[in-house]
Amino acid sequence: MSESDSGKELKKKSKLTITEISWLFYDWANSVYATNVMAAIIPIFFISYAGGTDTAWAFGSSIATLIVAVLAPFLGAFADFRGMKKKFLLFFIIIGTSFTLMMAFTDNWKWMLVGYIVSYIGFTGANLFYDSFLTDVTTKERMDRISSYGYAMGYIGGSTIAFLISLAVMMVLGFDNPLGPKIAIIITTVWWALFSIPILIKVKQIHYIDAPKKGMIGLTLKNVWKTFISLIKNRGVFLFLLAYFFYIDGVNTVIHMATSYGTTIGLDTIGLIGALLVTQVVAIPCTILFGKLAKRFGAMRMILAAVCMYVLICGVGFYMGYSIESAPTSGNDYDNAIKFSQLLFFLMAILVGTVQGGIQALSRSYFGKLIPPERSNEYFGFFDIFGKFAAVMGTALYGFISLATGSAASGIAGVSVLFIFALAVLIWGRKIIKKSELDGGIK
2 in a domain, yes or no? Predict the structure, then answer.
């Protein structure tokens, strides 16, 4: 199908189009959910005030992740039919925002958990269609730049501005007042819903498959199988996804384990929130920079650079933990070891900020270049599966090594294996992956 902003004119433009800007704003819209609900504020409220446990919260995340991962290719296949992508996006935004809001009006941890599970399904489901719209809003030549701007917008908006507003409200009311987190939930809902309007109004499904008059379910199942086979047969795409599975697992593990690892070196809630903000602030310019450098050096080289940085981050994390574990248990030497480790933790937060947004943004755009645009939802559905199931292995590896050795530092060192394996796949299969890219990916 033809594109509205297609051809040579869009390639020559340096300024963002209204369609691209409207797409970018959804990252600004939904990132507040990732920060307030998934990471920083609501988990503490759920455990401290609602009477739930971190185990229940973890299981809730796993259930929601599993549901979306299993359904993603089938939802994507349906959404590739003409006029369906926007409808699915709207449906999951409504589900996500409605059940997020529900959490503000209950003090029962079980109902809060239900609200979280369903809202998380809405959040991750909507992201599937948001990601796939990348092929509709811009050209292949601009994808790295636009995808990077998207992640940067997310860090500025939901992950920083809305997060700081929520913290300010809680400070005014007092951190011990349960009304503060409830207002933070309302802020999350309003922010997400309000800034979703541009993508719903201005972005259109340009690439699509004509829907059959009958037999849509059968055709959908057939397309899902066909897509799976095409991913396996195209060696370049398969090798990229294999490497992505391992390095994104490492990225997710660093994100998920940062808080608990920080507590082992004596950081309190304020210190952990400060480290989180450092990561977000550093990530804003660095994510944009990654997009610019990808244009000059190539997306694959920048992904390789980011994976190497994560190996270094794991090394810093190991040394940070080791300096605590090997220090005396009391006295000045122990206090100095704690201070040194906390300094290293903030250094690690800075290093993570330099690459976290960039590696995710370029992975999304690089995959977008390798797939047929008219079936982007379906392919991004499989891309989503790799990302979701990858969230399990790294945390399990960290936990197993930590328990077996009695050392959290060794657990962090073990996570580096994921990045090293991904690095080996990318280096060994680089020519094959590059050839697939030059050939236009999957036809």
Answer: no
Decide if 4 is inside a domain. Answer: no
Structure tokens at 330: 């009391």
Report, as ranges of residue numbers, the positions in the chain whose pLDDT lies below 50: 1-9
Residue 20 lies in a domain: yes
Distance CA 234, CA 435 (A): 11
End-to-end CA distance of the chain: 14
CATH code (residue 382): 1.20.1250.20
Report DSSP letters for 383-414, one per residue.
HHHHHHHHHHHHHHHHHHHHHHHT-HHHHHHH
**Lookup result for tokens 């990561």:** 279
Query: Rounded to an integer, what distance in angstroms lies between the CA atom of residue 126 and that of residue 90?
Result: 8
Question: Buried b vs exposed e over 39-71: b needs ≥16 C-beta within 10 Å?
Answer: bbbbbebbbebbebeeebbeebbeebbebbbeb
Prediction pTM value = 0.83
Within-domain flag for 323:
yes
Residues 6+ apart with CB under 8 A from 317: 254, 261, 348, 409, 412, 413
Q: Token pair for residue 287?
A: 């994510």
Q: What is the pLDDT of residues 42-76, one digit of tens each?
A: 877 777 766 766 667 767 777 887 788 788 888 87
Alpha-carbon 111 to chain mean position = 26
H helices present in 105-178, as ranges: 109-132, 134-137, 143-156, 162-173
Residues spanned by the domain of 309: 10-438
Tens digit of pLDDT for each residue in 283-325?
999 999 999 999 899 999 999 999 999 999 999 888 888 887 7
Domain count, the chain: 1
What pLDDT, on the 0 to 100 scale, is given for residue 401? 85
